[in-house]
Amino acid sequence: MNKTQDRVVIFDTTLRDGEQSPGATMTHDEKLEIAGMLDEMGVDIIEAGFPIASEGDFEAVRDIAEITKKAVICGLARANFKDIDRCWEAVRHSERPRIHTFIGTSPLHRAIPNLTMDEMAERIHETVSHARNLCDNIQWSPMDATRTEHDYLCRVVEIAIKAGATTINIPDTVGYTAPRESADLIRMLRERVPGADEIIFATHCHNDLGMATANALAAVDAGARQIECTINGLGERAGNTALEEVVMALKVRNDIMPYRTGVDTTKIMNISRRVADVSGFQVQFNKAVVGKNAFAHESGIHQDGMLKNPQNFEIMRPEDVGLSATNLVMGKHSGRAALRAKLHDLGYDLGDNQLKDVFVRFKELADRKKEVFDDDLIALMREAGTEVAREHMSVKFLRVICGTQAPQSADLVLSVDGVDHMVSASGDGPVDATFNAVKQIFPHNAQLKLYQVHAVTRGTDAQATVSVRLEEDGRIVNGQSSDTDTVVASAKAYVAALNRLIVRRQKTGTDRKEIDYRDTMQ
Ligand code: KIV
Ligand code: ZN
Predict the structure, then answer these.
(1) Which of 143, 148, 206, 517 is the best mutation target for the ligand 1 pocket, counting ligand atoms within 8 Å of the beta carbon and taking the most?
(2) Phi, psi of 79 (to 5 degrees)
(3) Best label site of 103, 254, 502, 511, fewest CB within 10 Å?
(4) pLDDT tens across 15-53, in order?
């Protein structure tokens, strides 16, 4: 192995493992857009979905396979012929297709389909051989590998290699391992399994103990050459290894980790924001690399040091991840050309019609706010994107009466499929009154699971971004909106979540919720 400049393959699973995160469901168009961005930034392999899970998943994988230019397009399949055939139907439209098939090999996971070790070994041989007869590029994963007995793990990895797997992925499904153990496991497999030199080992880490990125990098040091990751670390529970973390760690610490990736890091910020918007999972402020505070230096000592030499407190430059170095403030006198240039700096290249629409919104905002900062524009772009995507219902008019005298009340006009409905409602506070008004017009039993308000910038005229999460019959949906008026942002976020719920209700075919992910055979 060439230790000096070894290439590590980046496998992004935002659209599969990331989208599995409850509430992170993306629309078809959003998936295609994210896949395009991943391809353009140089991700090597895109896991585009789980084709058997639903008609929608199938169509998304097929369409991504058709349009993607550079990346390998991969789909997930459990250890049965039906899943594998369906996966192949979707990915075969790619110039570079891959089938990824898996089965849970740890004692706990073997118990679910109730197979003996021998029966499971036989099933792995049959399914990987079947997949290999369809496609040259096969990835196989022993799910929960980090809790599988070593002897059995070696045995099944050898069977998968002999049956034709070209990549063996070692998942830490429950985020249980630690860096040294992660490295030892890869080393052990490379030493003990016949044929290990012929294939690529991949590492797939979940973040339950906050060690996903460290575990992935340790595995690379031990010889793994594919890292599985998601944008913003999106994923079930505490998420997955974050793409931006591993890519930047390999770039910044190339001295001690001499591996390179093909990812253009200047595209990181843009895709991070877009994934946050479409998944409804906002990035925590102090998240490494992409958090709002990752390059902010507020304390006096830090600011002083930064002015003397940015390297005092910054190990990477904002430009390295695509943040614009300047923070030119916009105002109501700024023209269309300035707005276009500013949005370009922020990573948004708009056509003339789109710019026209965004310019109107910008002027409205600039009338209400003295200074429009980068984050205001990002929130504004999010608003524009959200409204185009889901417009069953929209808030037309809202007036609330609030203050010390209860009950607070709301007058609301809501447009539902083009027809305006007006109601008045009261509640325990202005937000409660507003939500009650929405419920009068659109009765539903969805439970409010999360209501969160963030100020986009500083000052009393700052925009507020409101996030709402709803649950109905096990379906979880998120909605978000920003406005200088917190109650208006709340109403719009609530309605955005309901719009998503309507889409989810209308989804035909088998919904992913009905698939038992742990029963890998079915
Ligand atoms: O975490 C996991 O084990 C997975 C497998 C399907 C690879 O996502
Ligand atoms: Zn996973």
Answers:
(1) 143
(2) -85, 60
(3) 254
(4) 999 999 888 888 899 999 999 999 999 999 999 999 999
The span from the CA of 393 to the CA of 384, in Å, is 15
Beta bridge partners of 172: 205
Cβ–Cβ under 8 Å, residues 97 and 137: yes
Tokens for 162, please give them: 């002999």
**Distance (Å, rounded) from C-alpha 91 to C-alpha 165?**
17
SS (H, E, C) 332-345: CCCCHHHHHHHHHH
The pLDDT assigned to 512 comes to 45
171 touches ligand 1 (CB under 6 Å):
yes
Q: Are 339 and 359 in contact (CB under 8 A)?
A: yes
Instruction: Tell me which residues of the chain have a pLDDT lower than 50.
Output: 1-4, 388-389, 508-514
Who's near 420: CB < 8 A, 6+ residues apart? 396, 413, 414
Closest of 481, 478, 480, 460 to residue 469, by C-alpha: 478
The whole-number pLDDT of residue 384 equals 73
- The strand pair at 393-401 and 259-260 is best described as unpaired
Contacting residues for 303 by C-beta, under 8 A, at least 6 apart: 297
With contact defined as beta carbons under 8 Å apart, do 216 and 250 qualify? no
pLDDT the model gives residue 419: 93
Q: Nearest CA to 155 among 129, 186, 117?
A: 117
Task: Based on DSSP, count helices (H) and strands (E) in the chain, helices before strands.
Answer: 16, 16
What Cα–Cα distance (Å) separates residue 369 from each residue in 330, 342, 362, 372, 381?
A: 10, 17, 10, 7, 16
SS3 state of residue 478: strand
- Tell how far the Cα of 119 is from the centroid of ligand 1, in angstroms: 21
Find the DSSP H helices in 193-319: 212-221, 243-252, 268-279, 300-308
Angle of CA points 497, 502, 508, to nearest 5°:
135
pTM: 0.84
Residue type, 297: H
Count the Cβ atoms, other than its own, within 10 Å of residue 5: 9
With a 6 Å cutoff on the Cβ, whether 520 touches ligand 1 is no
Q: According to the model, what pLDDT value does residue 522 have?
A: 64
